[in-house]
Write a structure and sequence with these properties.
single chain, alpha+beta, ten-stranded antiparallel sheet
Length: about 260
């Protein structure tokens, strides 16, 4: 079996302290029992892709990753990403704080180069609501199969975190949200994204459910390049409404 790749160490940065999602704000996060604003899940995912791409140079074009966020990182935390090759050729990936708390787990692999991307017709386009007309999410409008408004933009970079951020943007630009948390993503890469490239994010609701007082939604998202076709598909899970603040430790909220 191949030997493990070197550790990837980085200092966590809260890249969204002023975003509309106030779970990244220190004061609001503290109301839910956290010790500071949460580092976004897409940022943590970006850290985790660094050793994966080093191990699988083609991963950005035909790789997969299933990632779950278990505990938060906070601004300034040391992040230690470990990858462990498995016998089947996949990688077990973990991200933990410097003191050992396991915060995220993932499995990454390469698909056969002959496997084809899903048809884009399975992800219909729909208009976005105006920012002041976004509805609050609920069981009445998060219906399985319902199409969401399509985002069109130009990529500033091809960084994996920026690509996954578009799945967050689909949720944010279709619904009026309070503090919310990205909890998991299943990513399939189908082509190489390029900075300056026009791209669209189409999505539909896959599921909606409640767990431990939280309200969760699962989206199916496709990123499409105007020139190259499908770039990425994502099954994206988020707590769109947190349970009311309680006396349990905030670090347990993601489990």
């Amino acid at each position: 079996m191949p030997s493990p790749a070197p550790l990837h160490r980085v200092r966590a940065a809260n890249t969204a302290p002023d975003s509309e999602n106030k779970i990244h704000d220190d004061r609001v996060a503290a109301q839910y029992g956290f010790r500071g604003g949460l580092v976004p899940g897409v940022t943590v995912y970006g850290y985790m892709t660094v050793p994966v791409i080093a191990h699988f140079p083609d991963w950005i074009e035909r790789g997969t990753m299933q990632v779950r966020f278990l505990e938060p990182f906070y601004d300034g935390d040391e992040v230690i990403v470990k990858v462990e090759p498995r016998a089947d050729g996949s990688l077990a990936v973990t991200a933990e704080r410097g003191e050992g708390t396991l915060c995220a787990v993932a499995s990454a692999a390469l698909r056969p180069s002959t496997e084809l991307a899903p048809e884009s017709t399975a992800y219909p386009q729909a208009p976005l609501p105006a920012p002041d007309q976004r509805p609050a999410p609920s069981a009445l409008n998060l219906l399985a199969g319902a199409p969401l408004g399509t985002i069109a933009c130009t990529l500033e970079s091809a960084d994996p975190a920026e690509l996954l951020q578009l799945s967050n943007e689909v949720l944010v630009r279709n619904f009026r949200l309070g503090p919310w948390i990205h909890t998991a993503s299943e990513i399939n890469n189908w082509g190489r994204a390029r900075a300056g490239e026009p791209i669209s994010a189409r999505a539909r609701v896959h599921d909606r459910f409640d767990r431990k007082g939280h309200h969760l939604v699962v989206l199916d998202v496709m990123l499409l390049s105007d020139q190259a076709g499908p770039i990425q598909t994502v099954r994206h899970t988020a707590i769109y409404r947190l349970r009311p603040p309680a006396a349990i430790p905030g670090d347990a909220v993601l489990r």
